[in-house]
User: Fold this.
Amino acid sequence: MNIPEALRYTATHEWVRQEADGTLAVGITDYAQDNLGELVFIEVPEVGRRVAAGDGCAVVESVKAASDVFAPVAGEVAAVNAALVDTPRKVNQDPYGTWLFRLKPAAGADLGKLMDAAAYRASLGTA
Amino acid sequence: MRLTPLAAEHRAAGAKLVEFAGWEMPLHYGSQIDEHHAVRRDAGVFDISHMLALDVEGPGARAFLRRALANDMDRLGQTGKALYSCMLAEDGGILDDLIVYLLAADRYRVVVNAATAEGDLAWLERLRPPDAMLRPRRDLAMLAVQGPRAREKCWTAFPELRAASEPLEMFFGAAAGDTFIARTGYTGEDGFELMLPVARAAGAWQRLLAAGVRPCGLGARDTLRLEAGLNLYGQDMDATVTPPECGLGWTVDLAAPRDFVGKAALARRTPACSMLGLVLDGRGGVLRAHQEIHSAHGAGMVTSGTFAPTLQASIALARLPVASRPGDSVQVVIRDKRLVARVVKPPFVRRGKILV
Assistant:
């Protein structure tokens, strides 16, 4: 299972990357896409929406099931990857190269609660 | 978990394996969408050995099945003919749906669903008269080879089956040595279903793959059958509903003199719903089982829904108020939204062609 060292992770299988502009790019992990199967529908949030940590922020649906993508921290939606609506399978092909939305973290948003790669790998029970 | 005779072949082909009705089965071999397209455009093979073949034999076999099954075995006029039927409880609820083949005079083969196999066997054993025998055939493996090029690729893989199977009309089967080959399936495409001794299953699978038939898993099987408008037992029907409530009124004839289990109750029960198809207008989500439906005629429920690869749209089978008609517009509750769907008469796709 591919779990890049440079990213941070949630227990609900989102990955988080800190961007140069201070926003956080959010996508779903390789584990998540593999379990969902081929994605056929993606719904991204509205830019400007304010979310609390753990709020449902985007929706990904595979042939098999629908799944929420949760905000890893509190913040405001700064950008969305709207092109994915037409090409949901890109998430399967390149889960870490395909972000769904970017969050501008709220003041005091706690990034420390996110897992590093080793902790996420341990949470999956894979060596 | 129970393993089919092809478990090692599934692993060798890179299957993602899942539990289904107590069996370890392939969900897909990399891409269920590509597998779906392979069956609509070319040829694919499914391991269906988890389903159970039951041979019913003896002088009382015909009378036994005419009483136990809702469709009339006397429609099997010719050897080799296949018939789709429901098996009903006394209250008219559906215990299972199945296919019966007439193998020879006084010899029938019934193929039932995996999840219901044990219950069906016990139920049939209770109804069985002393002059009919019931023989589960776990010694047989079953393969479904489906798609517009399935027959020709089957003959490449098994030249010895060609003479017996080339003349077969749709919904007919024939014995060829120790193999039974039938022009039936669950995808809306042409093709064959093969039943053969377990010991020969792996070899047959390998020959099909060598002939260019693509291995396909349960994921593609589900999207294909849904596009074909075919019900799935346990999902679109169960013991709480009757055949007319599931779009299967054509399989029961209440006017004929023959009596069968569930007939009296069916005659009394007014259908509470009817089964129709839905196509979601535009995007906004995917239709899924258990979603609520609101229509001018009342409420309904999605029983099976998916993204249909051939239509590139979301489709569903749904229980709707009996007054519903194709062409109606309904609203489906998907998460926090109400999305508009169009009511259609299934099937959605047959023989590679979109019909809705």
